[in-house]
C-alpha cells in the first residue's frame, strides 16, 4: 500500500503543474557517491538520511547468499532516543503483497486453487463489474499482477477509523464497490490496485478457512524464521515498532488501522525481511525446507498478463514482484509505503545478492531512492554489467513508432487527468535515432534490441516495447512500476491545446481578484451608487474563489483526514459543487445584462472571466470532479 497523502497534496496544484515544465533529463544531478567498503556505505546512507531529514533506517545486506550486515542507522524513536537496530520492527506497506502471492502459489502447488481461474468462479460473492467478462474475464492472476483493470482505493477506504481491526474483508468489498469496476479489458494493462490484492488475500481465507494472516504466519513467516513479523499489532511487534514520521520537522504519523490489510499491513524488521530475500535467492528454500518450488519463484518474477509482456517485454510487474534496472543491473523485489514508513527489498538471483531498506519517515521519497542506489552500487561493484547488444533497424521502421503517446492506465481514475496533463511520452526520430522525452524536457536516445523492443543507453536490456493495442492503434509500455505506463498514440496537438486552454482560463479567472479589489473599494467609498448588475462582477469572482477554496483545502489534507468528513473535505465538496453552478450562472447573467446598463469594459471582462470558468467547468466535469465527497463510498 503506497501512502496516499503525498499524492493528494499535489493533485489540485494545477496552476503550478501547468506553468512549470517538467524537468528534463538535462537537469543537473548531484555528484554520486560510490562506496567500496561497508563502512563507506553506512556513512553514505547516513549522509542521505541527514540530508533528507529522515530519523532512521533499518538495513540488511546479503552477499553470496549470506547475511553480510544487518543493523540500523539513526533513531527509531526521537522522543525516547531509541536507536534503530536489526530487530526494530517497521510497517512495510506493500511488501505485504509478496506474502499474499507466496500463499496463493503454495495453495496452487497443493492443488487448492488455479491462479488462472476466473474470479467469478472462485469467489462469486465478490462484488465486481466487468463488461468484458465474456472475452476478458478477471482471473486470480490479474489480482496479483494488477491487470484486472480495477481502480485504486476510495478515499474513505484507506483508513479503518470506525470498525474493529479485523473487519471482514468481504464486508470491505461490499461497502466499497467502486474500485472493483474494470476500466478496460482485464489482462491488457498494468495499473496498481490495492483492492485487487486485498481480494487475493480474501481468497486465502476462503480456501483455507482461516484468517489470511494466520495462514501466512504459519506457512511462511515462522518457517522462514521471522519470529515476530506479523500483520496484526501484537505484544511482540509493538514493543519493537519504530515510530513513523511525516513532514519536516518530523511529526509522528501514528499507526492508523487500514481496511485492506493483506495489501499493506505487515510489520517486520530488517533482520526478518532479509530472510525473505534469502528465500527468494534460494528459489523457495528456507533452511532445509523447500517451501515453494523454484518454478513458482520464477513465475513471481515474470509478468505474463499484459499486452507488453505478451509482445516480448521480459521485465515488468509479475506476481507482487517487479523488476527494476537501477544501477545497470536487473533486480527484483517490491517497495512499500504507509503512514510514516517507506520500504524496499531488492535482490539479483544471477549474482546472489540482495538487501532490505526500511525508513521510518515518508518525508522524502528521494531518501529511499538514494539508499537503494547506494546498496545496489555497493553489492554489484565486483560483478560485470553487460548490456544487450543494440541493432540498427531501417529508419522507416523507426519512423512508424514516432508520435505522442498519452497515458491510458491511471492508478486513481479520479486523478487520471493529472497523468494526461503532465504525463505522456514523445517518441521522435532525430538523425536516424529514436528519441524519447516527456511532454517537456530533453530527449534521450532509445537503442533497439529486438522487434519493437528498446532500452535506454544505461539499461542492461529491453525496458520499452511498442505494440498494437486492443483497438488496433500503436501503444507503448515500459518496465515495472516506474517505467512508461501503458500509453496509446494520440495527436500531439491535443495536450498542448489542452494546457494552453487551461492556462488562459486560469489567467482570466485570476484577474477577477485584483479587479474585485478595485470595485469593492469604490463600492465601499460610495462611488458606485448608480452601478447596476453588480452580479456580473460577483459571480465569476465567487466561482474563482470556490476553486481556490478547493486548492486550499487540499493543501491541508493529510493522514486520516483524507477519507473522513471534516472542514477540509467539506470545503472540497462545497468548492467542487458550487464552482460549476456559479460559472454557468455568471455567464448567463453576463450575456443577459443589457449593454446600455453596464460599462463595456466590465461587460467584456465578465464575459471573458465567466467563459473561462465555464470552460474550466467543462474540463472538471469531463474528469468527474464534481461534488467530490471523499468521506462517502
Helix-strand category: alpha+beta
Look up the CATH topology of the largest domain: Beta-lactamase
Cα end-to-end separation: 19 Å
CATH architecture of the largest domain: 3-Layer(aba) Sandwich
Summarize the amount of helix as a percent range.
Answer: 25-40%
Number of domains: 3
Averaged pLDDT:
92
Supply the CATH superfamily name of the largest domain: DD-peptidase/beta-lactamase superfamily
Rg on CA atoms, Å = 26 Å
What best-fitting shape do the alpha-carbon axes yield? globular
Please work out how many helical segments DSSP would assign.
Answer: 22
Strand content: 15-25%
pLDDT < 50 stretches: 2-30
The largest β sheet comes out as: 8 strands, antiparallel, barrel
For the secondary structure, the number of strands is 21
Regarding CATH, which class of the largest domain? Answer: Alpha Beta
What order do the strands of the largest sheet run in, or round the barrel if closed?
A: 14-15-16-17-18-19-20-21
Explain how this protein is built:
The longest helix is centred in the C-terminal third of the chain and has 26 residues, at 567-592. The model is unreliable at 2-30 (pLDDT under 50). Helix content is 39%, strand content 16%. It contains 22 helices and 21 strands. The chain has 633 residues and is α+β, with helices and mostly antiparallel strands. The chain is globular, with a radius of gyration of 26 Å. Strands 14-15-16-17-18-19-20-21 form an eight-stranded antiparallel barrel. Strands 3-2-1-13-12-11-10 form a seven-stranded antiparallel beta sheet, sandwiched between helices. The chain has a two-stranded antiparallel ribbon with strand order 4-7. Helix 3 (38-52) runs antiparallel to helix 15, helix 4 (96-109) crosses helix 8 and helix 20 (535-556) packs parallel to helix 22. It has three domains: 5-24 and 39-379, DD-peptidase/beta-lactamase superfamily (Beta-lactamase), CATH 3.40.710.10; 395-490, Beta Barrel (Lipocalin), CATH 2.40.128; 494-622.
